[in-house]
TrEMBL record:
Residues 1-29, 42-51 have a biased composition (Basic and acidic residues). It comes from the Bacteria. Residues 53-79 form the Rho termination factor-like N-terminal domain. This is Rho termination factor N-terminal domain-containing protein. It comes from Sphingobacterium chuzhouense. Pfam families: DUF7218, Rho_N. The lineage of its organism: Bacteria, Pseudomonadati, Bacteroidota, Sphingobacteriia, Sphingobacteriales.
Length: 82
């Protein structure tokens, strides 16, 4: 059973797995709290198929700065490499 990491972590099991892989607390928390983070194997919507507005919302969720000055391909690259 996964340890309870408090109300700020929505998926404690996923958080612990990411921390075990060496991710920082911040990044592990961000990933484990993302609504579609549990989708694997190509089930998540491809970034290329999303609108710029959807990409801006995703970039905001993960804390990418300067996102409003980016075009769609720059947003996709920033999200993938964050």
């Amino acid at each position: 059973m996964a340890k309870d990491h408090g109300k700020n972590i929505k998926d404690d099991k996923k958080y612990e797995a990411l921390r075990d892989k060496g991710m920082s607390k911040e990044k592990a928390a961000r990933i484990s709290n993302t609504p579609n983070a549990s989708k694997k194997g190509g089930k998540a919507d491809p970034l290329d198929d999303r609108t710029k507005e959807e990409l801006l919302q995703e970039a905001k969720k993960i804390g990418i700065t300067g996102r409003h000055k980016m075009n769609k391909s720059e947003l996709i690259n920033a999200i993938r490499n964050h």
